[in-house]
Backbone:
């Protein structure tokens, strides 16, 4: 029975994950994911990117979506069902038919001692996709979709394939169950620049032709800009800016997104960096920060930033977690100026 | 310029022409006809992987020389040999690597280890890729520094500690780092510590193997800035290996593009990025995603050849859109087409020979 909730493919409502670290007898905890909320629409398949630096919580979020970790707070639902509350049998028979992962390092995902086609057959049989006779044609079908063929792959060990090919096999394996959602955690970061594009182009094609939604987790903003529809920028567990990718990366509003975009090295001698970057704070210090977690590095830091956690403000068709876009903190005129990229001295005084 | 063109017209120029011009004082590293193969013998089957196959290059004093190429094209092998750190099965078959410090010449491939031991870390240093595997996990950072310095310089303990603290402060690393264990630091911080470790004895020549590859953009930017600062204050020379042309654009002065164990193009960074002549370099640059456009980008068809059985002739010919008959038979020489710009491609060489000048535009070899 379709309820209003199940109209969404995947929803995250105030999802949080608390990790505690023990050092000797003392222990301290930090929020690896801090009240993250977003939703994917099944009617319109899209590539949704979660981007951020290492330690921003993107992989933890992916692990929670895959049911590998339980959220400490909030709710993650897939087609209206809470992922954390699925029964074991349901996870195997239903959830993983719908949601499939692709991991960062294809050579770590496949055992070097097993032939790579073994994984493809195993997935087919485990999920009862086809009988023995139909398995070959089904596997060949998914391999064709990623630009390979069964003849090329059959009987080969992972080390006989290039990184790009192995990653394609990993994606083909994920496609076997005809999932509605693929969670790809840094699928291209182990690959060469020239091979990256072939994988990213494939994601674009899969979305258009197979109607698969893809949750693309990456720190590579250039490929994210190239393939994604929407993007969420994460910083120390927060989603600081979320919206359509051409707007968020084309005209970033949050100071963190701005510095992130600025830091992408471009293969263009006319677009090299000019000013020196600010010094990086220690990761643990930023997690422990009381107010905005970017306050220590932010060029527009205000006194309120060090005291209070910013809310999620709507600006230019996206959500921004920054006081620069809060009318209560800086006044209506300033918000407009900030959005236009004009920062007056009064708005940036500490 | 006429000189270099004359060489080109002289049909399949002698290999001499492609070698770096005689030992000038400004060179710090010279590589001549270097061939390094992985030679293994298992069950009576000889397997030879030609990872570095006939490389000539010279690195000038004080510059950042970038080496670019896909994985599996021999970048790291080349660096190992440049460091004189080759070990079986990697064998140097032919050629030489020479360092020049204060006019004195050191052969990096000499059989005696002692001469190398003396210059390693003090003169020649190395920044490896995986910083996690370099730092001893059971020693605090300050102890790692102490171990390192005491092994290579005769300095008292107190002085070592002072030196370390000053150097790290100069690089902008927080003092907290010193008393931490490696696992307590983030990836970017560890990579900075590794760089600090490699440069604390002010070496004149630094080899960096993918120093930023595992890092995310903001951290990467900081690390690149750190390398730049060190290079500028110490006046050292850096040989930088990375497949990320964006990093080369920001750091390198000159770039050499490696393909399947051979140098296919070499020029200053601007020329490589703006006016690449070799079809492979053009592909490499055209395949990069850009932040200001979302038009479809083509990836290079096929994949790099396996180096135990490389294709005959030009090693790029199975993937090259402009392949000619002679590309399948003859291996193109690395020829100078402009001062400081060398290309190994029959197409470019023919164009030069027939038109008798420098091709004005790139479009003759633009991948469609």
Residues:
């Amino acid at each position: 029975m379709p309820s209003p909730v199940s109209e969404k493919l995947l929803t995250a409502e105030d999802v949080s994950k608390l990790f505690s670290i023990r050092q000797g007898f003392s222990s301290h905890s930090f929020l690896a994911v801090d009240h993250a909320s977003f939703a994917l629409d099944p009617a319109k398949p899209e590539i949704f990117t979660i981007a951020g630096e290492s330690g921003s919580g993107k992989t933890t979020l992916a692990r929670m979506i895959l049911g590998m970790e339980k959220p400490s707070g909030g709710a993650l639902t897939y087609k209206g069902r809470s992922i954390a509350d699925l029964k074991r049998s349901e996870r195997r028979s239903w959830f993983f038919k719908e949601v499939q992962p692709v991991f960062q390092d294809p050579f770590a995902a496949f055992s070097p001692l097993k032939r790579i086609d073994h994984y493809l057959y195993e997935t087919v049989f485990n999920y009862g996709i086809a009988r023995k006779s139909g398995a070959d044609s089904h596997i060949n079908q998914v391999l064709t979709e990623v630009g390979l063929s069964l003849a090329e792959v059959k009987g080969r060990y992972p080390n006989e394939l290039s990184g790009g090919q192995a990653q394609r096999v990993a994606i083909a394996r994920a496609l076997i169950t005809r999932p509605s959602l693929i969670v790809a955690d840094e699928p291209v970061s182990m690959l060469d620049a020239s091979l990256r594009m072939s994988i990213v182009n494939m994601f674009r094609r899969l979305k258009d032709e197979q109607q698969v939604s893809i949750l693309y987790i990456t720190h590579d903003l250039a490929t994210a800009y190239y393939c994604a529809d929407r993007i969420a920028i994460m910083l120390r567990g927060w989603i600081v800016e979320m919206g359509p990718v051409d707007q968020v990366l084309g005209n970033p509003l949050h100071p963190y997104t701005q510095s992130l975009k600025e830091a992408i090295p471009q293969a263009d001698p006319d677009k090299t960096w000019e000013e020196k970057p600010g010094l990086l704070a220690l990761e643990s210090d930023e997690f422990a920060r009381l107010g905005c977690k970017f306050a220590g590095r932010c060029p527009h830091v205000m006194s309120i930033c060090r005291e209070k956690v910013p809310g999620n403000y709507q600006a230019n068709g996206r959500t921004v977690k920054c006081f620069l876009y809060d009318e209560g903190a800086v006044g209506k005129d300033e918000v407009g100026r900030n959005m236009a990229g004009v920062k007056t001295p009064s708005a940036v005084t500490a | 310029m006429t000189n270099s063109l004359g060489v080109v017209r002289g049909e399949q120029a002698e290999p001499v022409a492609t070698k770096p011009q005689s030992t000038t004082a400004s060179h710090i590293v010279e590589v001549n006809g270097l061939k390094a193969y992985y030679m293994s013998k298992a069950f009576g089957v000889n397997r030879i992987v030609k990872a570095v196959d006939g490389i000539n290059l010279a690195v000038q004093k004080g510059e950042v020389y970038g080496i670019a190429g896909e994985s599996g094209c021999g970048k790291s092998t080349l660096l190992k040999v440049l460091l004189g750190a080759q070990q079986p099965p990697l064998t140097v078959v032919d050629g030489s690597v020479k360092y020049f410090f204060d006019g004195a010449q050191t052969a990096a491939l000499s059989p005696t280890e002692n001469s190398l031991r003396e210059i390693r870390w003090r003169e020649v240093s190395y920044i490896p890729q995986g910083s996690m595997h370099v730092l001893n996990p059971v020693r605090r950072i300050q102890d790692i520094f102490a171990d390192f310095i005491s092994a290579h310089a005769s300095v008292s303990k107190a002085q070592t500690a002072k030196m370390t603290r000053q150097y790290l402060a100069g690089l902008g690393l927080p003092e907290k780092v010193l008393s931490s264990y490696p696992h307590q630091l983030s990836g970017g911080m560890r990579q900075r510590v590794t760089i600090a470790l490699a440069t604390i004895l002010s070496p004149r020549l630094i080899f960096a193997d993918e120093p930023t590859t595992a890092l995310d953009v903001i951290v990467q930017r900081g690390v690149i800035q750190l390398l730049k600062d060190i290079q500028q204050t110490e006046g050292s020379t850096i040989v930088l290996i990375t497949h990320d042309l964006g990093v080369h654009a920001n750091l390198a002065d000159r770039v050499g593009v490696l393909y399947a164990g051979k140098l296919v193009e070499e020029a200053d960074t601007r020329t490589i990025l703006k006016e690449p002549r070799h079809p492979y370099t053009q592909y490499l640059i055209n395949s990069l995603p850009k932040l200001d456009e979302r038009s479809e980008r083509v990836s290079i068809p096929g994949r790099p050849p396996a180096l135990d059985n490389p294709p005959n002739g030009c090693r790029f010919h199975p993937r090259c859109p402009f392949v000619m008959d002679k590309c399948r038979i003859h291996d193109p020489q690395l020829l100078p087409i402009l001062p400081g710009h060398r290309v190994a491609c029959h197409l470019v060489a023919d164009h030069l020979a027939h038109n008798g000048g420098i091709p004005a535009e790139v479009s003759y070899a633009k991948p469609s």
Summary: Chain A is about 35% helix and 20% strand.
